[in-house]
Write a structure and sequence with these properties.
Radius of gyration: 20 Å
Strand order of the largest sheet: 5-2-3-6-7
Largest sheet: 5 strands, mixed
Strand content: 25-35%
Structural class: alpha+beta
Helix content: 25-40%
Number of helices: 7
Number of domains: 2
CATH superfamily of the largest domain: GTP cyclohydrolase I, C-terminal domain/NADPH-dependent 7-cyano-7-deazaguanine reductase, N-terminal domain
Order of helices and strands: HHHEEEEHEHEHEH
Low-confidence stretches: none
Number of strands: 7
């Protein structure tokens, strides 16, 4: 089903009935419409182009040659295996090569990829690859720390565990000093 093929209220009513609920009871009467609206929001990243968000600026950036890092970027996503939420924080950094991007654009980039059905590992790489492709910086680093409700609320039921993923591109791969600096800046 593509993003344009929306679940109808009838579909959500059928889901409620299949769970053993009465979709006509007062507390659930408006639930199908609310759930439909919520899932449109939670998957709105499919309709957004990451490239269009990353408008680069060249004014004043030509001489800047240090890491630019934004940390604490909120991540709210749903795993593609159970449709369960996962949430946490991302840190995104890059070493410019004559171009910079508005800092809020890094947050928007994370938001675009998190508002899709995801696995954290792929999302981390997508964020890094998009930044590398569009800005062509010397280096890109992304660290994502999330809690997964599929682990906390079912199965092994381990509350509070965080999964940490990272992606280092460009000079962050071979340059240990630069990598160490990025990871120190990314640390809480």
């Amino acid at each position: 089903m593509s993003h344009n093929d929306e679940f109808t209220e009838h579909d959500w009513r059928r889901l409620l009935a299949s769970l053993g609920e009465d979709p006509n009871r007062p507390g659930l009467h408006e639930t199908p419409a609310r759930v439909s609206k919520a899932w449109k929001h939670w998957t709105s990243g499919y309709g957004q182009d990451p490239v269009s968000v990353l408008k680069a600026f060249e004014d004043g950036a030509e001489q800047y040659n240090e890491l630019i890092v934004v940390r604490g970027i909120p991540v709210y996503s749903h795993c593609e295996h159970h449709l369960a939420p996962f949430f946490g924080k991302a840190t995104v950094g890059y070493l410019p090569n004559g171009k910079i991007v508005g800092l809020s654009k890094l947050t928007r980039l994370v938001d675009i990829f998190s508002k899709r059905l995801q696995v954290q590992e792929r999302m981390t790489m997508q964020i890094a690859n998009a930044l590398m492709e569009v800005l062509e910086p010397k280096a890109v680093g992304v660290v994502v720390k999330c809690r997964h409700m599929c682990m906390e609320s079912r199965g092994i039921r381990t509350q509070g565990e965080e999964t940490i993923t990272s992606c280092m591109l460009g000079e962050l791969q071979p340059n240990l000093a630069l990598r160490t600096e990025f990871l120190a800046l990314a640390r809480d």
